[in-house]
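**Protein of interest**
===
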Amino acid sequence: INGAVSIQPHGTGSWVAASSNAVLGNTDNVWTDKAARAELNVGTGLMQLNAETSLTIVNVSRHAVQVRLNQGTLYLHVHHLFDGEIYEVDSNNGSFTLKKSGDYRFDADSVADTTTITVWKGEGSVTGERSALRVKGHEQVRLSGTAAAYERHKDPNPDGFDEWCRVRNQRQDTAYPRAYPYPYPYPYPPGVIVFGRRGPWY
């Protein structure tokens, strides 16, 4: 957490201040205020939220991570995508499903009714009213409406938020366990403590 971040448990009731290492579950909402940022850890994936971002956790299970970006900016870094594992980011303009591990950025503009997807590294597909649209590394796609219209561009230069995410993600990647041969057993056996460079992970 960096700045004022709030959560709304189960999507109902009052908003409360978020605390570090809080456990979030399905239907929880997350909001980052002005000049605030937040990071969510989901297995081998990291989700970073920029300022004034609204995110809903739709479904998180052993083999699936599905979130909805209502507005703002989400950076998703997946260290390793296991067989059968699903990462999906939904918005008002469609759904994006990862096909490979990598780095992805999503910008949702609720006023203009657009979602911009930037694939720095990796590959994924968009589903909406039209047939599936494949987006590869170093590509950017801007969706309008319910993905019925889109623009495709080359990925832009990273901004300050992208660099902040990149540094944090590199640090996290170097903290993955060295005791297990890669890829690491997933899901981890009950009771196993995974040690990385920065200490034990439970």
The mean pLDDT is 86. Residues 82 and 94 are 24 Å apart (CA to CA). Residues 160-173 form the longest helix (14 residues). Helices lie at 160-173.
